[in-house]
Specification:
InterPro entries: TmcA/NAT10/Kre33
Organism: Bactrocera latifrons (Malaysian fruit fly)
Number of domains: 1
Strand order of the largest sheet: 1-2
Distance between the termini: 34 Å
GO cellular component, one term: 90S preribosome
Protein name: Polycomb protein l(1)G0020
GO molecular function, one term: tRNA binding
Number of strands: 2
C-alpha cells in the first residue's frame, strides 16, 4: 500500500476537537473511503487521552453495513486463526475498535 500524506487541516481539526471536548464528524465519500477510516482513527488515538475511543459507523444502504462475513473474519483474527499480517488494515481496525453501527435514512 502506498502511503500518502494527509492534509494537515484534518489533523488540526481532530486535535482541536479533542482539546475542546467536541465531537468531530467526517463524511468520507468514494470507493476507497473504508480504507481511510483506520488512518483517521490512528490520528484520533494519538491525540486523545482516552485509550480506545469508540466509533459510530453510520450507513445509508444495507450494503454499506459491516457484514456478517466481516464480523466472522474479525473473530478469526481475534482468535489467532488468521495471521494479522495477512489481514488488511480495516480488518485489524475492526478487531481492535468498538464500533457502533447505525442506519440512517
Amino acid at each position: 500500500m502506498v502511503k500518502k500524506k494527509i492534509d494537515n487541516r484534518i489533523r488540526v481539526m481532530i486535535e482541536n476537537g479533542v482539546k475542546l471536548g467536541h465531537r468531530t464528524m467526517f463524511i468520507i465519500i468514494g470507493d476507497k473511503g473504508r480504507d481511510q477510516v483506520p488512518i483517521l482513527y490512528d490520528i484520533l488515538t494519538k491525540s486523545t487521552v482516552k485509550a480506545r475511543p469508540t466509533v459510530l459507523w453510520c450507513y445509508k444502504n444495507k450494503d454499506e453495513a459491516i457484514s456478517n462475513h466481516g464480523r466472522k473474519r474479525a473473530k478469526k483474527i481475534a482468535a489467532g486463526k488468521i495471521d494479522v499480517n495477512d489481514a488488511d488494515m480495516f480488518d485489524t481496525f475492526r478487531v481492535s475498535t468498538t464500533i457502533h453501527g447505525r442506519y440512517y435514512s
